[in-house]
């Protein structure tokens, strides 16, 4: 008989701490040298040790050869595109893709027996790392009202229960349907269709915490809420600016593109408070000489901006560019482009009468010399790509900062042509596809008209709740049921204590999940877990292995076909879960043939083709190797905006006032090299030299001294927005190369400090990289002041 690898009782592992549902215990922090080079041998070793730990070395390695290969499956980790040609024979994956695969390809599993032996309360005392390591979910589970343990439930009964709850609501708007970004195009399309036929646009999604800011800024300026470059553009461009993004950890395959661009002569400028290893240098693990030989130096210029100093930095650059243009008329700005394609240039220029370069330099935190150097790199080049990530989108003025980036590109005519433009680097592997499929709380009338014409029901027109609004609506009992297609709502969102209390008020929480997470343990009065297949699993419908489709960060739609035997026979794919839910809920009131979509992905794709532009001959085109590019007018130089006709506007923005009290610091919450959002792979952050601890706070050595601390001190962190005390107890100070008064911590641990009201203007995303905190010596009695989640 095979050894049963499923975890059983876990009571012995539980650490009893004062606050039961927040296990705060420090591990044994070790500091190592910070990395100047990303990837290479340590990355290969680290990746494969995860496969071994998850007891899936053979399965996992077999799968790796299929990952991101034509005809294989799309890596479940990030949304970076695959090369059109020239895919590495050593595999087109990275260390963090292997870790993501190890997480889902694990042979460890959670059965009904596991839930019988462990109460929800006990499980909630584990930390996220321990919870994630329990294994794959294998059967639907139900937590009754006042229940202490999840119990097995049949699929049919689970759908009946959810349907009863949905149909008992006073209005469809009392339900909210969340989506995380791994969900395929097919599932996403059906899921939003179901929500709309049920009667609501309450579709909060992870974009509301991620690139909503980019979408808001780009849509109004260039007419499309997506990036305008393709992977090939990286190879032939002259300058790549990477601002507020950590590619070495979060999009490691981007480093291959950067190295290739660099080899062809591009200069790279990195703008970041931290000297991230992946911005500095790269050893390509997919090339033999990259594993053993010399790596490539990446950034030619590193600008250590202060947190939220980017706006000042961008404006300072514009002033210097203007100065260079005045000295070299017509050489720096592109007047033909400005005249033909833009509007608002005069007003834009005029604002500079009011700015003082020295003040801006001061606010940015970067030296004047370095800013001149940056301006000189871009001044006489046209082929410029600007990439950004959460460092900008999660700032209160993120929308404006992205518009400021566009101002620069418009001045120089560096957008809407080959080898130049904008590249918001998306997070989840299909988050861009989710939006294309209309997972959106504010669908346009045009989109809704098309659905109405094809399906014949009246979709709701009123905009729904995004993530932050949904949390508040739950708290106010306006939303009573939360259905989550993937993700980890509680841990990913802001203001953990507030959000937990909001979730606890719900009648029902439902999570379609692959792995156990905290959102199953902090739940509504009743709760249901529906286990599902993951990207790498074989998905058999009507006896045949199927593929699903996704869209990457650059608008390429591709097929993805899993190849691993699922850990349980009792898993249902996400598309069928939606169809069964729709049939149970809507019954014969529905005008949609859900059974047909349940039985055929091709039929779903045919419906998508009819309802969403750009998907002509979807079934045929997506079967071609490498998939197809969606149309992108902005890429072709057409900026069709709602308010400015066919012109892209220059935007007038403001310099934020970042005032801090003497004992206050600015905190950005970010990712370690050993996690995927709320899934914690391990406890190290190798490139930043941290081992075996996540509860760390990076501080400048001067601040450590001035605050009366020493590196290694235990501290508690506080936030006082809205006059509420928020506490994240027990962190260790790590002295780090970071601008003064700036600190960095890891999410999700510090989400408890982010007020639900601390949001980005216009996109309403949590501003989780702009949190004012106070730092005090750890008080062992602090737990008495923390309320239960
Ligand atoms: N392995 C792995 N891959 C991932 C993920 C993961 O968790 N793990 N998550 C996926 C998801 S959903 C997303 S959205 C992406 C996220 O990928 P990134 O956008 O890289 O996200 P973060 O790691 O949160 O932070 C990005 C950078 O912002 C910098 N930063 C902080 N504040 C500022 C500021 O004020 N200005 C500037 N210029 N920089 C600042 C930080 O130092 C950090 O280097 O990655 C995706 N890929
Ligand atoms: N403070 C702070 N907060 C942040 C951020 C930050 O930088 N700082 N980043 C934000 C960002 S960019 C994002 S995108 C959000 C992420 O928010 P989410 O997308 O909600 O969170 P994840 O941690 O990616 O979700 C992990 C869970 O998804 C489930 N899962 C994994 N694969 C699949 C699958 O194939 N199907 C299904 N149904 N379920 C699956 C597993 O059960 C797993 O536990 O967090 C945001 N929160
Ligand atoms: Mo994200």
From TrEMBL:
Pfam families: Molybdopterin, Molydop_binding. Residues 667-773 form the Molybdopterin dinucleotide-binding domain. Its EC number is 1.-.-.-. Coiled coil: none annotated. One of its GO terms (molecular function) is molybdopterin cofactor binding. It is an enzyme of class 1 (oxidoreductase). GO terms for cellular component: membrane. CDD domains: MopB_ydeP. It comes from the Bacteria. Residues 136-513 form the Molybdopterin oxidoreductase domain. Gene3D superfamilies: 3.40.50.740, Dimethylsulfoxide Reductase, domain 2 (3.40.228.10). Signal peptide: none annotated. GO terms for biological process: cellular respiration. InterPro entries: Asp_de-COase-like_dom_sf, MoPterin_dinucl-bd_dom, Mopterin_OxRdtase, Mopterin_OxRdtse_a_bac, Prok_molybdopt-oxidoreductase, YdeP_MopB. NCBIfam families: Fdhalpha-like. This is Oxidoreductase. It comes from Flavobacterium panici.
């Amino acid at each position: 008989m095979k050894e049963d690898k499923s975890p059983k009782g876990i009571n012995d592992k539980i650490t009893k701490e004062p606050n039961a549902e927040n296990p705060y215990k420090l591990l044994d922090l070790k500091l190592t040298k910070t990395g100047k080079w990303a990837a290479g041998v340590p990355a290969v070793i680290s990746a494969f040790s995860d496969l071994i730990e998850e007891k899936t070395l053979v399965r996992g390695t077999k799968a790796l050869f299929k990952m991101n290969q034509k005809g294989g499956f799309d890596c479940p980790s990030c949304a970076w595109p695959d090369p059109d040609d020239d895919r590495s024979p050593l595999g087109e994956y990275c260390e963090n893709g292997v870790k993501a695969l190890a997480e889902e390809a694990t042979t460890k599993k959670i059965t009904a027996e596991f839930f019988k032996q462990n109460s929800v309360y006990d499980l909630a005392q584990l930390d996220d790392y321990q919870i994630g390591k329990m294994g794959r979910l294998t059967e639907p589970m139900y937590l009754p009202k006042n229940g202490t343990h999840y119990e097995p439930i049949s699929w049919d009964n689970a759908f009946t229960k959810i349907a009863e709850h949905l149909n008992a609501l006073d209005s469809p708007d009392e339900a909210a349907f969340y989506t995380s970004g791994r969900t395929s195009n097919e599932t996403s399309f059906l899921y939003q269709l179901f929500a709309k036929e049920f009667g609501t646009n309450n579709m909060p999604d992870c974009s509301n915490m991620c690139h909503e800011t980019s979408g808001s800024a780009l849509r109004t300026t260039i007419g499309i809420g997506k990036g305008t470059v393709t992977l090939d553009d990286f190879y032939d461009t002259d300058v790549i600016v990477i601002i507020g993004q950590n590619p070495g950890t979060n999009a490691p395959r981007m480093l291959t593109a950067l190295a290739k661009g660099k080899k062809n002569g591009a200069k790279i400028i990195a703008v970041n408070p931290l000297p991230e290893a992946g911005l500095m240098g790269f050893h390509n693990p997919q090339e033999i000489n990259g594993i053993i030989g010399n790596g490539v130096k990446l950034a030619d210029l590193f600008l250590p901006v202060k947190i939220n100093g980017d706006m000042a930095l961008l404006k300072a650059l514009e002033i210097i560019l203007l100065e260079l243009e005045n000295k070299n008329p017509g050489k720096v700005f592109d007047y033909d482009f400005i005249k033909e394609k833009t509007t608002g240039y005069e007003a834009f220029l005029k604002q500079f009468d009011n700015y003082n370069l020295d003040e801006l330099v001061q606010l940015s935190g970067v030296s004047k010399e370095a800013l001149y150097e940056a301006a000189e790199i871009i001044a006489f080049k046209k082929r410029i790509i600007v990439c950004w990530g959460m460092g900008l989108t999660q700032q209160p003025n993120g929308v404006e900062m992205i518009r400021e980036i566009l101002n620069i590109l418009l001045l120089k005519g560096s957008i809407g042509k080959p080898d130049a433009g904008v590249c918001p680097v998306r997070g989840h592997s299909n988050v861009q596809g989710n939006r294309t499929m209309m997972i959106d709380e504010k669908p346009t009338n045009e989109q809704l008209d098309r659905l109405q014409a094809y399906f014949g029901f009246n979709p709701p027109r009123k905009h729904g709740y995004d993530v932050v609004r949904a949390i508040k609506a739950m708290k106010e009992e306006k939303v009573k049921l939360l259905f989550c297609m993937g993700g980890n709502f509680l841990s990913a969102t802001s203001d953990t204590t507030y959000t937990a209390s909001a979730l606890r008020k719900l009648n029902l929480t439902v999570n379609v999940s692959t792995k156990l997470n905290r959102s199953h343990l902090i739940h509504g009065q009743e709760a249901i877990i529906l286990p599902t297949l993951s990207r790498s699993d074989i998905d058999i419908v009507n006896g045949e292995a199927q593929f699903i489709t996704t869209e990457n960060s650059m608008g390429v739609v591709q097929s993805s076909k899993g190849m691993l035997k699922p850990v349980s026979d009792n898993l249902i794919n996400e598309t069928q879960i939606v169809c069964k839910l729709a049939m149970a809920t809507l019954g014969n009131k529905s005008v949609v043939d859900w059974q047909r979509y349940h039985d055929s992905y091709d039929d779903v794709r045919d419906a998508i083709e009819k309802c969403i532009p750009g998907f002509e001959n979807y079934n045929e085109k997506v079967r071609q190797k490498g998939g197809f590019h969606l149309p992108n007018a902005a890429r072709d130089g057409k900026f069709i905006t709602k308010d400015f006709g066919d012109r892209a506007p220059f935007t007038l923005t403001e310099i934020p006032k970042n005032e801090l009290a003497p004992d206050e610091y600015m905190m950005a919450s970010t990712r370690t090299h050993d996690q995927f959002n709320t899934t914690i792979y391990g406890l190290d952050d190798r490139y930043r030299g941290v081992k075996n601890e996540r509860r760390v706070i990076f501080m400048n050595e001067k601040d450590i001294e001035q605050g009366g601390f020493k590196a290694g001190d235990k501290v508690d962190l506080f936030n006082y927005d809205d006059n509420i005390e928020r506490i994240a107890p027990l962190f260790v100070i790590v002295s780090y190369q970071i601008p003064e008064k700036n600190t960095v911590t890891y999410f999700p641990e510090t989400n408890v400090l982010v007020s639900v009201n601390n949001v980005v203007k216009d996109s309403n995303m949590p501003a989780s990289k702009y949190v004012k905190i106070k730092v005090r010596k750890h008080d062992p009695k602090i737990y008495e002041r923390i309320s239960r989640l």
